[in-house]
Amino acid sequence: MALYDTLGSTYGRTRRPDPRIAAQIHAALGDAADVINVGAGTGSYEPPQTVLAVEPSQVMLAQRPTHSATAVRAVAEHLPLRDNAADAVMALLTVHHWSDLAAGIAELRRVARRRIVILTWDQQVLREQFWLVRDYLPQAAAFDDTRAIPTDHLATLLGGAHQEPVHVPHDCTDGFGAAYWRRPYAYLDPQVRAGISMLAQTGEDALAPGLAALADDLATGRWHHRHTDLLARDTIDVGYRLLVTDT
């Protein structure tokens, strides 16, 4: 069973693509005439020129909109595609789930004629800059330590890559890990947590003490007092990165 057959049931509701992040991803794809989306999930951020989506989870595939690109159930490490199959290949917030990173990256390089675009995160920056894991849920940070891919290592596997910061807007519509950095009450919602793999996989029992502390700090106003600076910001850099490389 694919991981997201159990974790992905809420993605259609909580993980709607954010147009500002979409614009950055689509700009990184450049003038690619055709795009393959690997680890495609429900189809977030697929540009109009997407010709194929590759996703191992049937639960995720079932949540794809009816107008989405053709999708196939397969894994990144064994793409059912010929060499140089498309101008560009993208893989968004997925590489940390792959069972064999080197094999998956080799497959991206094999099928991409011109460009590869990967969205991931810098774990050290996230640990230091994101208040939720730093101050309340270190267990989630520790879980991510076991699976996060250092961006420099990823760039090396790609044969070199340009790294672009992806700033998270305060009203981000895509409910990934740090999306609610200025909306702390959201993390108390079980449905929101179910759509964030680092929280869903850490487990509710492990998260319970930290969530209780967060709820108390919100109720007393301590959170708002500590984070007055955040409340005045429109975007934040907590480590999300686009890696772009030409093959």
* Largest sheet geometry: 7 strands, mixed
Strand content: 15-25%
Low-pLDDT runs of 5+ residues are none
| N-end to C-end Cα span | 33 Å
**Spatial strand arrangement across the major sheet:** 3-2-1-4-5-9-6
Q: Kindly report the name of the CATH homologous superfamily.
A: Vaccinia Virus protein VP39
Report the count of strand segments. Answer: 9
Shape: elongated
What is the CATH architecture assignment? 3-Layer(aba) Sandwich
Description:
There is one protein chain. This protein is of the alpha/beta class and 247 residues long. The chain has one domain: Rossmann fold. Helices cover 40% and strands 17% of the residues. The protein is built from 14 helices and nine strands. It has helices at residues 4-7, 11-14, 19-29, 58-62, 101-111, 123-129, 131-136, 138-145, 151-157, 190-194, 197-202, 204-220, 222-226, 228-231, and strands spanning 35-38, 50-54, 71-72, 86-92, 112-121, 162-165, 168-169, 235-236, 240-246. The strands form two sheets. A seven-stranded mixed beta sheet has the order 3-2-1-4-5-9-6, with helices on both faces. Strands 7-8 form a two-stranded antiparallel ribbon. Helix 4 (58-62) links the parallel strand 2 and strand 3 (71-72). The longest helix is centred in the last third of the chain and has 17 residues, at 204-220. The radius of gyration is 18 Å and the shape is elongated. The chain starts with a helix and ends with a strand. 42% of the residues are buried.
